[in-house]
Structure formats: structure tokens, C-alpha cells
Write a structure and sequence with these properties.
Distance between the termini: 78 Å
Radius of gyration: 24 Å
CATH superfamily: Alkaline Phosphatase, subunit A
Number of strands: 18
Helix content: 25-40%
CATH class: Alpha Beta
Number of helices: 14
Largest sheet: 10 strands, mixed
Number of domains: 1
Strand order of the largest sheet: 7-6-5-4-8-1-9-10-2-11
CATH topology: Alkaline Phosphatase, subunit A
Structural class: alpha/beta
Strand content: 5-15%
Shape: globular
């Protein structure tokens, strides 16, 4: 009996299928990777997560993939995006606080540089070293100096808005990289934007151009890692007038009604147990107590917000259509997430500056947000919103679609964290990681865990004894299993059992003092390990006014 026939015979006897070597056998192609980030998108804004906004492209991806119902971020954008690209805690990699919000005692301290530290390795750097072409378009917010540009941190092709936010129609462009409205292309300063610039549309178009320019022929084609980082629907709320008009009158019933509608929709979709007690809204007033003029202005802001989300969805649809046209869609793993919970601030006009008329809202050079009422319609049943370590600030919508998902159309309820994206994608790409080392130099260790088991069989990612801490603006939390301690920034720790109370409505501190003490001690160890420097004096961009 020949050697090959003997192997086949033995395999049959054992009931085991063995792979036989073959000159024709080829390794499976490595997946393309597309990471899409929305800015300040609330948990239930997408239709697939309970919303009424028209998001057919994202809904199709989410419903064909795996929705992550228990996904968590940091409480604001730059720290989250730092963790997304490094797999490490934000305090380790230079974004222990927002670059714009450093407290005097934090400035200059290790971990508070306000940009990605040099001793980090980004996902782009790791995948480029592993043979991927690396593409970036959108909001960066991880450093403005030339050596901090995405082009210097592993992205071979990039179009970057360097700072946190801007006029979505491109007004006020600056050629000073340190200013708020600065852009670069492949590391070079952008000196002009087209007259028809709109952020979501233009960012998608730039990524499509990069995909086309780097494609190559079939034999030489490399897999790609593409990072599409929107700044929508971050304030200022701005969108094309025709899209805003589609939502005219849709929100006239107010944010209290919308909140109940969103909760019912989440329950219908299987994302929320209808028996869950939602946290009461905070820092807002009942809709019916507003004057007719106040209600009209408020509902208009929500109409603009909805239009922004729809425009983001259209932009994603254009990228998906391009992948399909190139024959790349079926081999592309897509990760979508929001970088934190919904934003509640609605700043008043500067003194001496009149509020823009209602008809002008949503256009260029108008700066408004929609406020705490609408934000908590999107974060319900959770407590609070962006900038807090409560669930409303760090529980964000996310999904994975594409070939990595083995049980498409399902919902994952296991705890997952933005730190996990790097190890997950490196795992799927077959890129080896040497702990603490990259390209011959020391780098910060990866803190996250791979989702391979979650994607394949909905397995738990974090063991029950693994603690995960957070801190931003002095608001802190630590989670271990389903138990969580939370401090909204006033120094008072609360204890919650999220398995039975995801809305953080019942503080169990008095009933479980030993558990609370153990979790506080675990947070102290976490803070020492990653180098947390609590802000002094205390600072919070949206200071809490309730203490429940």
C-alpha cells in the first residue's frame, strides 16, 4: 500500500479527515479588513439596534453578521481610537486624557502626551509588516506633528482630519497642523477642499480612491486593511438640506416618546430584555415642559442629527459597492463601532453672538448639538452619556460582518472591549505578535483579547475573574464579570449587577460591601498598573448634576 493510500485508510478507520499534501493545495487567502468608526453615535441610532433613522447599508451588514450587544469603549473619542489602533489601555499609549482637556497635574506626565506614544505599535504598522496594504481616511485625533501623522504610523495611504472636530462642510480650513481644521494627505498638508465637501461623503470617496489606486492585478494583489474614521454624527450638527427635509416633523413628539419607542424596538429585536428597568433621564427636563418654540428648535436639531446618520450610512454604502465591484466584498471582514456613547452637550451661543435662525440650522458655520434628552433616547436603558464611565458613556453599538463570522445573523451577549480589535484582527490575519516587542523595539503590551471564539461560536471572551478598568475626566469604572463599580466623577463609587440591572438603577453598595471593597481595590491596582493620574483640579466637560 502506498504511503498516501495508507494515510487515507488510517483516517477512514479513525473517522478523522486528514489534510493530504498536494501540489494543488493553496493556503486560504488572508482576509481583507475594513474598520469603520462612527463618532458619538448612540447605541440605538441604527435600525439594526432599534432606531428609526434610515440606515439600510449598515443594517444589512449588521443583520448579516454578529451584533455585539455588550461592546464597550472609553468615554470619549481620542482615548477610544487610541485603544482601537493599539489594543492597549489609553493611559499606556499617550491618551490618558483628551488632548484638549489635560489638567495641570496631568500635562507632561507619562501617558498624557496627547498623542500616540512612540513606544506603541499600531494595527496599521503590524499589518503592513505582515504584508497588508494599509489605508486610512477620516478623523485621526491621535497627534498633529509630522511624526504623529497616520502616514508616519503605518498607513501607506491616508487622508486625515488631524483634530477632533470641524465644520462638516469644510469651512475654516487651516494649513496650520495644530489648528482645529487641519488636514493631511499622505503626510502632506492639505491646502484646499472642494466646494462640495461634506465630511462623510468625502472621507468615503478618499478611501474608495485609495482602494482603486492600490489594487494591483490579481496575481500581485495584497489584502488590505482600511480604516474609515467618520467624524459624524459628532457636533456641529450639519447635513445636506435635502436629507434634513426628509425628517421634517418626525421628532415633534419629543425625546421622551422617542426613548420609549427605542426601548420597545430594542426589545423586539432581541437586544434588550423587556423586563429591564431603564435608568431615568438626567440633566434634562420633560418634553411637555418646554415652550412651543423650544420644542420646535429641539426637534429640528434631532432632524439634523438623523440626516447626518443617514449620510454616514450612504457613505458606507458607497464603500461596500466598491468592494463588491472589485470582487473583494466576500473576503472582507468588516468591524463597525461607535467610539463612545451619545453626546449630550448643547452649548449656548457665545456671548454677543445671536443664535442662528431655525432655517439656518444644519448648514455651514452653524454649531449646535441636540442635548441630553435626545442623547438619552439613544443610550437608554443606560445611565448617562458620553464622557462618563457609566454604561451610557461606554456601552456602544458594534458589529462584525464577513467571513470571520461563523454564525451570521446572531447577537453576541458576551462582554467585549475596543481593546480587543487589534488582537482579533491580527489573529484573523495570521500575523504573529511578540509580546512587548515590534520591529526590534520595545512597545506597549496588548491588553485586549481575541474574539476568534466569539466569532466562531459566540463563546465568552473574558474569564469571570478578569477585571477591566477605565478612567476619563475623573469618571471611573471597573468591571469584573457582570459586576461593575462606577464613579461619575464626584468621588462616590456605586456597585451594580449588570446581569440583572444593565441600566445601573440599583446601587448594591450596602448589600455587597465586601464585593464593592474588592472591586475598588482592583481599580486601584489597575490605576497603578496603567498610570492613571486623576485630574486636579477636577475637570469634566459635562459636569454631573445628579447623584443617584
Amino acid at each position: 500500500m502506498s504511503h498516501r493510500r495508507w494515510i487515507g485508510f488510517a483516517a477512514a478507520l479513525c473517522g478523522t479527515a486528514l489534510a493530504l499534501p498536494s501540489a494543488q493545495a493553496r493556503p486560504a487567502p488572508r482576509p481583507n479588513v475594513l474598520v469603520i468608526v462612527a463618532d458619538d453615535l448612540g447605541f440605538s441610532d441604527l435600525g439594526a439596534f432599534g432606531g428609526e433613522i434610515a440606515t439600510p447599508n449598515l443594517d444589512a451588514l449588521a443583520l448579516s453578521g454578529l451584533r455585539l450587544a455588550n461592546f464597550h469603549t472609553e468615554a470619549a473619542c481620542a482615548p477610544t481610537r487610541a485603544m482601537l489602533l493599539t489594543g492597549s489601555d489609553s493611559h499606556r499609549v499617550g491618551l490618558g486624557n483628551m488632548p484638549e482637556s489635560m489638567a495641570p497635574n496631568q500635562a507632561g506626565r507619562r501617558g498624557y502626551e496627547g498623542h500616540l506614544r512612540a513606544d506603541t505599535a499600531t494595527l496599521a504598522e503590524r499589518l503592513a509588516a505582515g504584508g497588508y496594504r494599509t489605508l486610512f481616511s477620516g478623523k485621526w485625533h491621535l497627534g498633529t506633528a509630522p511624526d504623529q501623522d497616520p502616514h508616519a504610523r503605518g498607513f501607506q495611504h491616508s487622508f486625515a482630519m488631524l483634530n477632533c472636530c470641524h465644520d462638516h462642510f469644510g469651512a475654516g480650513l487651516s494649513t496650520d497642523r495644530s489648528k482645529m481644521f487641519g488636514y493631511t494627505r499622505d503626510g502632506e498638508t492639505v491646502t484646499s477642499l472642494p466646494a462640495d465637501f461634506y465630511s462623510s461623503d468625502f472621507f468615503a470617496g478618499q478611501l474608495i480612491d485609495q482602494l482603486r489606486a492600490t489594487r494591483g492585478d490579481d496575481k500581485a494583489r495584497q489584502p488590505f486593511f482600511a480604516y474609515l474614521a467618520f467624524t459624524a454624527p459628532h457636533a456641529p450638527l450639519q447635513a445636506p438640506a435635502a436629507t434634513i427635509a426628509k425628517y421634517r416633523g418626525r421628532y415633534d413628539a419629543g425625546y421622551d416618546v422617542l426613548r420609549q419607542q427605542r426601548l420597545a424596538s430594542q426589545a423586539k429585536l432581541g437586544l434588550l430584555d423587556p423586563a429591564v428597568q431603564p435608568h431615568r433621564p438626567v440633566d434634562t427636563v420633560p418634553w411637555d415642559s418646554l415652550s412651543p418654540e423650544e420644542r420646535q428648535t429641539s426637534s429640528r436639531k434631532m432632524e439634523i442629527y438623523a440626516a447626518m446618520v443617514e449620510e454616514l450610512d450612504k457613505a458606507v454604502g458607497r464603500v461596500v459597492a466598491e468592494l463588491k465591484a472589485q470582487g473583494e466584498f466576500e473576503r472582507t471582514t468588516i468591524v463597525f463601532l461607535s467610539d463612545n456613547g451619545a453626546e449630550a452637550r448643547d452649548p449656548a451661543p457665545r456671548p454677543g453672538t445671536p443664535a442662528p435662525p431655525l432655517a439656518a440650522l444644519g448648514g455651514p458655520k452653524t454649531y449646535v448639538n441636540y442635548g441630553a434628552g435626545w442623547a438619552q433616547a439613544a443610550t437608554a436603558p443606560s445611565w448617562r452619556f458620553k464622557s462618563f464611565a457609566t454604561q451610557g458613556g461606554i456601552h456602544a453599538p458594534a458589529f462584525v460582518a464577513g467571513p470571520a463570522v461563523r454564525r451570521p445573523g446572531t447577537i453576541a451577549r458576551a462582554y467585549a472591549n475596543v481593546r480587543d480589535v487589534v488582537p482579533t484582527l491580527l489573529d484573523l490575519a495570521g500575523v504573529t505578535v511578540t509580546p512587548g516587542r515590534f520591529a526590534g523595539r520595545e512597545v506597549q503590551a496588548i491588553d485586549g483579547l481575541s474574539w476568534r471564539g466569539l466569532l466562531a461560536r459566540n463563546a465568552t471572551v473574558y474569564p469571570p475573574d478578569r477585571a477591566v478598568g477605565t478612567e476619563l475626566f475623573g469618571s471611573r469604572s471597573l468591571r469584573q464579570g457582570d459586576w461593575k463599580i462606577t464613579d461619575i466623577g464626584d468621588g462616590i463609587w456605586h456597585l451594580f449587577d449588570l446581569a440583572h440591572d444593565p441600566g445601573e438603577t440599583r446601587d448594591l453598595s450596602a448589600a455587597e460591601p465586601a464585593r464593592k471593597a474588592a472591586l475598588i481595590a482592583a481599580w486601584d491596582r489597575y490605576a497603578q498598573d496603567v498610570g492613571v493620574v486623576m485630574p486636579d483640579p477636577p475637570f469634566h466637560p459635562n459636569p454631573p448634576r445628579d447623584h443617584d
